[in-house]
Specification:
With 254 residues, the protein is an alpha/beta fold. The chain has 12 helices and 9 strands.
Length: 254
C-alpha cells in the first residue's frame, strides 16, 4: 500500500460556483489524523474562495460514506495528550464546517459510523441513499460520541441522539435518519449524483450574500463550540487509554 493510500486521498473539483470535495481511505473511508487535517484545511481554503458559493462533500466508493476515526491510530495513542490531540482533529473539522462561509451539501452513498455521522450532521443539507444506515458505536468500544454530540444533537435532537448513542450496537436505517432530520431526502443510488448536482447548482444560482447570511442564521448560538468540542476531545482522549477500549479496538479489528 502506498503512503498516499495509507494516509487517504482528498480531491477537489470545480464546476461553475460549486466545489466538490471527495475524501477516501482504503479502510472504509476512515479518518487518520492526517486526512482530518487535510480536509479541515481544504474547507477553510474554500471558505475564503470568492468564486464559489456551495461545497459538495462526498466520499469514495459505493457502500460506506465514512467509518469514523482510524482504529489503527486509536491503538497507537499512549497518553492523554496524544488522545486529546487525536480527537481534536474532529473538533477542528466540525468547527471549520460550522464557520465555513459556504453552504455544504453532504452526498451520502452508504453507511456512516461515529465521526462519519458527526460530519454528516455538520453539513447544511444532506442527500443520501436508502442504504445509508447510521450508527454511533462509541460506547461499545469504551468511549462515547463526545466531540460530535453537539453537531448530532443540533441536527436530530437530544432524544434521537440518546437513542443512537445508547443503542451502540444498532444500525439506524436511512428512513430513520430521514425522519429525524439527519437527511433531507433519499434517492436511489443511480439518481443520487443527479439530485446532488441539481441541488448544488440551484443553490449556487442564488445571491451569494443571501446564502452567507443564511449560513450565519443556521449556525447561530454555536459559538461555544470553539472551546466545547476541545473539552469533549479531552474526555475521549482519556477514555481511549482504558484497558476496556484497547481490548474492544483489537476485537473490532479482528
Amino acid at each position: 500500500m502506498s503512503l498516499e493510500n495509507q494516509s487517504g486521498s482528498l480531491l477537489t473539483t470545480f464546476q461553475n460556483a460549486v466545489a466538490t470535495v471527495q475524501f477516501g481511505h482504503p479502510a472504509s473511508n476512515s479518518f487518520p489524523r492526517q486526512l482530518l487535517d487535510r480536509l479541515t484545511a481544504e474547507i477553510n481554503l474554500l471558505s475564503r474562495n470568492e468564486t464559489i458559493s456551495v461545497i459538495v462533500l462526498q466520499s469514495e466508493g459505493s457502500k460506506v460514506f465514512c467509518s469514523g476515526a482510524s482504529f489503527d491510530e486509536l491503538l497507537q495513542i499512549e497518553n492523554e495528550e496524544q488522545g486529546t490531540e487525536f480527537f481534536s482533529g474532529f473538533a477542528h473539522l466540525l468547527n471549520a464546517m460550522r464557520n465555513c462561509t459556504k453552504l455544504i451539501i453532504g452526498r451520502v452513498q452508504g453507511k456512516a459510523v461515529g465521526g462519519g455521522v458527526g460530519i454528516i450532521a455538520a453539513c447544511d443539507y444532506v442527500l443520501a441513499t436508502p442504504d445509508s444506515a447510521v450508527k454511533l458505536s462509541e460506547l461499545a468500544i469504551g468511549i462515547g460520541p463526545f466531540v460530535i454530540e453537539p453537531a448530532v444533537s443540533r441536527k436530530i435532537g437530544k432524544t434521537a441522539t440518546t437513542q443512537m448513542t445508547l443503542a451502540a450496537h444498532e444500525w439506524k436505517p436511512a428512513s430513520w435518519a430521514l425522519q429525524n432530520g439527519l437527511f433531507a431526502a433519499l434517492h436511489n443510488t443511480e439518481e443520487l449524483d443527479i439530485e446532488v448536482q441539481k441541488m448544488a447548482q440551484k443553490l449556487s444560482s442564488y445571491n451569494p450574500e443571501a446564502l452567507f447570511e443564511m449560513k450565519k442564521i443556521i449556525w447561530a448560538d454555536t459559538e461555544q463550540w470553539e472551546s466545547l468540542l476541545f473539552e469533549r476531545a479531552a474526555i475521549s482522549g482519556k477514555l481511549v487509554l482504558s484497558d476496556f477500549t484497547k481490548r474492544a479496538l483489537l476485537q473490532f479489528k479482528k
